[in-house]
């Protein structure tokens, strides 16, 4: 989970460096939000691995679920009408 958290942290830094055109600023903001949510979820899962307390899983799951939904919205904005694989 530490490695996943680090990957998301680096991805967020790189995505913040992008300068999207005005028409894509909302999509870019949503993408950044999804990355942050995934990173926060990984932090909670690392806590679960460290102490075994179920509350971390209960905190991590909704973060990951919300991030996934945001990424679906980003994909739909960038590629409307495209097939979304499972």
Describe this structure in words.
With 86 residues, the protein is mostly helical. The protein has one domain. 78% of the residues lie in helices and 0% in strands. Helix 1 packs antiparallel against helix 2. The protein starts with a helix and ends in an 8-residue tail after the last helix.
Would you kindly provide a brief summary of this structure?
The protein is mainly α.
SS class? mainly alpha
Q: If you compute it from the alpha carbons, what radius of gyration comes out, rounded to the nearest whole angstrom?
A: 14 Å
- How would a crystallographer describe the biggest sheet? none
Shape: globular
Order of helices and strands: HHH
Count of alpha/pi helices: 3
Number of domains in the coordinates?
1
Uncertain regions: pLDDT < 50 for 5+ in a row?
A: none
The average pLDDT value, as a whole number, equals 93
Number of E-type strands: 0
What helical percentage do the residues reach?
over 70%
- First-last Cα distance: 23 Å
Strand content: under 5%
